[in-house]
Amino acid sequence: VSAELPTTGPEPAELSALERGYRRLLALYPAAWRARHDDEVLAVLLECAPPGRARPDWRDACDLVAHALLERMRAAGRSPTCDDARSGVALAAIVALALLAAFSLLQLLVIVPNAGPWGLGTGYVGRSALSAMLASAGCLTACVCWLARRRRLACAAIAFTDAGFLVASLMLRHGSYAVSWSLIVAILGLAALASLLIANRAVSEAGRELIGRRGFVELIGALALIAEIGGWRHVAWAGSVYGSQSDNGMPAALAVAYFAAVAVALVMAVRNPVALIAVTVLSPLLLAAGFVAIAQGWLFGNEDVSVRLLDDAGPLGLVAFLVLASFAALRRSRSRALG
Amino acid sequence: MPPRLQEPTFLILTALAEAPLHGYALLRRVEELSDGRVQLRAGTLYAALDRLVREGLVAVEGEEVVDGRLRRYYNLSEIGHHALALEAHRWKANVAAANRVLAARPAEGLA
Prior knowledge:
The complex is a heterodimer. Chain A is mostly helical. Helices cover 81% and strands 0% of the residues of chain A. Chain A contains 13 helices and no strands. Chain A starts with 11 loop residues before the first helix and ends with a helix. Helix content of chain B is 58%, strand content 17%. Chain B has helices at residues 7-18, 23-33, 42-55, 78-104, and strands at 21-22, 58-66, 69-76. Chain B has a three-stranded antiparallel sheet with strand order 1-3-2. In chain B, helix 1 (7-18) crosses helix 4 (78-104). The longest helix of chain B has 27 residues, at 78-104. The model of chain B has no long low-confidence stretch (mean pLDDT 88). The A-B interface holds A 1-5, 37, 39-48, 59-60, 63-64, 66-68, 70-71, 82 and B 3, 19-25, 27-28, 41-47, 50, 61-62, 66-67, 69-73.
């Protein structure tokens, strides 16, 4: 056993400040990890510090924060493997597609009755309906291809949808509307495309529970329900704009179903490492899409159905994270109490 | 076939194949072995060590207290030795293949 000690080290006063800094960072790790490694890692960090250093190195700080978060995820009972991560990304791709399809269908349901059967492609409303139809068809095709394990066809369908949608949006010649629609479709579409390209066809056992069987249908159903029911007020809002008779408000039963669907999706995400990764991948995307919606409101001072629907998705992603964190804290405190 | 080892993992196992080491010595040895290319941080090192101990590739050899600080020594297990040998063999084959291809390449390609 050999180990070389540094010939020089920080002075005692500096050491205490440095030690305090590193101890604060190590406090981010779970209690069980700290009990096992705290003193040992602190010794390594102090030995690595050059003479005169009074504060933790920023690279060490970033490294410790990142690994503390990962360790907390692992300590909460979820230890995603590489296969789980790939499965989670694959699941995120299909959920992004399902959300995009639900989102486009909602747009279609709102606009088409106002465009009329012969009005598609003509006038502002008609062209909106055309672009919404294009997006719906493309996303649904991609979903079917993915489920049939025709990954290349699914990628082609998304690429076609994105390109076609860009052209359709430009045809609209309506600045803010075209920008917001294009950005949102681009964010979700390209994310789905990227996820499909990097996702492995082989999925882990935990992934099969979600992707291959009933659990997958439950999760997609819950998320689609969130997207559809979350758009209730947007349908009502669009009714007032386009003159349809859909301004009926949100029935109490739908509100209960909405929160139940959120609960189902979150509980599944907490219980399954693959779902957790899918939620982790999707939440920033939804937040980004929500940001586009907010930015459009600031820049142009107006909103549309699609934007307001995703406006809800951003906070929803945030709430999902908060609830997941609460579950993890609960599990930790329970395991400590049992231990 | 066992999963491929990432470069830091490969270097950690290589360092531990020489002798049992504690965290600080392991960081320095990995840096030396990689000619300074790989500079592990403490968080990364202990995440890797935890995983390797869980997988049975590395074992805790013992502990001692030096200047009031805890030092824990890690050693390569039999499984770790086998995994490292397998990965080294794999790289040897890859290097041989690359050398064959490069040797067959026209000389002006290097200019």
